[in-house]
Amino acid sequence: MAPLAGPIPTPEPLQDGDVALRPLRMRDAPHLERLLRDNRHWLEEWEATRPAGGGATPGSVSMKPTIRAMRGLMKIGAGVPFVVVLGDEVVGQLSVSEISGGALCSAQLGYWVSEHVAGRGITPIAVALAIDYLFQQLGLHRVEICIRPENHASLRVVEKLALRYEGRRAAYIHINGAWRDHDAFAVTREEVPAGLVARLRQRGSD
């Protein structure tokens, strides 16, 4: 697997109603650090960890090195980091990673939002905006989301978007101190010719 052939231009903000995605910026660091500290109990069960242990608790150190590294992925065509915005407030993150070009043309998504806005339909819109961007602007063919089977809130996101279940990956990612199973969901560009935001709207009106 290889990234895209060149750098990914910084995307313009993506928006539907009050929900938007915009590129992650260095000046987002203090706000994200506060969000991560305030949401420790909400997020820690789903956070990636190191098998050998160690590593800083999210929110306890500056986010600037992480943001710099994530923005660096755009320069090599391998990823795009966003913040999730509700109105004028940054309420979470969405990261596109593992972008591959060539014969694969795929990517993976990961995301989180603050507990104080959970359950308001923000995450499905953010995910739909990101996938439409990947298909329509970057020309990718397939996007995958892997979710722990215990993460019912995240499973509701892919259910609302009607993403296709592809099976369980045993001991797939080290999360919260142990290797955890994940369920894989995916969508291809051919499955959503009008876009995923349009599909979400249609399902909401059915």
From TrEMBL:
| Keyword vocabulary terms for this entry | Acyltransferase, Transferase
| Domain N-acetyltransferase, chain residue ranges per copy | 19-190
Source taxon at top rank: Bacteria
- PROSITE patterns per the record? GNAT
Q: Which Gene3D superfamilies match?
A: 3.40.630.30
Q: Does the keyword Electron transport apply?
A: no
Q: Know the name of this protein?
A: GNAT family N-acetyltransferase
Q: Which organism is it from?
A: Leucobacter tardus
